[in-house]
C-alpha cells in the first residue's frame, strides 16, 4: 500500500454487556455434585428444596442451594465457594471499569478513574449477597424459555454434561445456552449461543435475556445458577 494511504483504525465497542467466563476449580465442581447427589437421593430434602414452582424452567428438578454449602470450606487452605465467587465478582467489576474508564477518549487520552473506581481496582468489592441459588437437573426434552434474573449479577455454570452434548451427537445448539441482547439488525449479532462444558461458569448482568435449548440424549445435564448483589 502506498505510503500515506495506510488504513488506520481504533475499535470502539461500548454497547455490549459483559459476558465473562471463569473456570471453576475441580474441588468446587466435586463438592457441588456431591451435594446435588445427596439432595437428589433424599426424598424429604429434595421436596423441601424444590424450586421448580418458582422458576421458569421446564426441567426435571430445580433445588435451592442451602446457605451452608456456600460457606463451608473444603479445607483450611481453600476458600469457600462464597469467597471464590466474591473474587469472580470483583474481577468482573474491575474489568468493566477498565473497559469503560481506561480506554482512550476521542483525543487519544486515557479517561481517569474516580476515587471509588480506584478503590475497587485496588481492593475489589466490599460485600457480596447471594439472593438466590439453585442446582438444576435436566433430562431429555427439558428446556428453559427466554428469561432474565433478579439482582445485580447472575451466573450460569455446569457440573455434569450428557455425552451426547460433549461429543457433538446432538443437533445444533441442543442442550446449549443462548444469550440475547438488542435487536436483530443488519451488521449486528444479537444472539450468542454457547456449548456448555463442565467447570465453566459465566457471570452476566441479571437483566440479560437467555434461554436453554432441550436435548435428546440420555443422562443428566446439571447446572448451577445464582443471583447476587454487591456493594463497592
What does this protein structure show overall?
It is a single chain. With 232 residues, the protein is an alpha+beta fold. It has a single domain (20-231), classed as q2cbj1_9rhob like domain (Jelly Rolls), CATH 2.60.120. It is 26% helix and 26% strand. The strands form two sheets. The protein has a six-stranded antiparallel beta sheet. A four-stranded antiparallel beta sheet has the order 4-9-6-7, with no helix packed on it. α4 crosses α5 (115-123). It is globular and about 70 Å long. 24% of the residues are buried. The model has no long low-confidence stretch (mean pLDDT 88).
CATH homologous superfamily placement: q2cbj1_9rhob like domain
Helix fraction?
25-40%
Q: How is the biggest beta sheet arranged?
A: 6 strands, antiparallel
Shape: globular
State the secondary-structure class: alpha+beta
Annotation, overall tally of beta strands? 10
With helices defined by DSSP (H or I, 4 residues minimum), what is the helix count?
6
Query: Strand order within the widest sheet?
Result: 1-8-5-10-3-2
Just give the CATH class: Mainly Beta
How many domains comprise the coordinates?
1
Low-confidence region ranges: none
Amino acid at each position: 500500500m502506498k505510503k500515506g494511504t495506510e488504513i488506520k483504525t481504533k475499535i470502539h465497542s461500548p454497547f455490549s454487556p459483559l459476558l465473562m467466563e471463569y473456570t471453576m476449580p475441580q474441588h468446587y465442581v466435586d463438592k457441588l455434585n456431591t451435594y446435588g447427589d445427596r439432595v437428589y437421593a433424599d426424598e424429604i430434602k429434595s421436596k423441601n428444596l424444590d424450586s421448580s414452582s418458582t422458576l421458569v424452567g421446564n426441567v426435571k428438578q430445580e433445588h435451592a442451594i442451602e446457605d451452608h454449602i456456600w460457606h463451608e470450606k473444603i479445607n483450611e487452605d481453600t476458600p469457600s465457594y462464597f469467597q471464590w465467587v466474591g473474587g469472580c465478582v470483583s474481577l468482573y467489576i474491575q474489568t468493566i471499569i477498565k473497559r469503560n474508564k481506561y480506554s482512550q477518549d476521542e483525543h487519544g487520552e486515557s479517561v481517569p478513574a474516580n476515587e471509588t473506581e480506584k478503590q475497587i481496582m485496588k481492593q475489589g468489592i466490599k460485600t457480596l449477597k447471594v439472593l438466590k441459588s439453585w442446582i438444576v437437573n435436566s433430562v431429555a426434552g427439558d428446556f428453559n424459555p427466554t428469561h432474565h434474573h433478579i439482582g445485580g449479577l447472575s451466573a450460569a455454570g455446569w457440573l455434569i454434561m450428557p455425552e451426547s452434548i460433549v461429543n457433538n451427537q446432538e443437533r445444533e445448539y441442543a442442550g446449549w445456552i443462548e444469550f440475547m441482547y438488542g435487536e436483530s439488525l443488519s451488521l449486528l449479532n444479537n444472539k450468542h449461543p454457547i456449548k456448555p462444558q463442565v467447570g465453566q461458569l459465566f457471570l452476566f448482568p441479571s437483566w440479560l435475556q437467555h434461554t436453554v435449548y432441550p436435548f435428546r440424549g440420555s443422562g443428566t445435564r446439571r447446572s448451577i445458577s445464582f443471583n447476587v448483589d454487591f456493594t463497592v
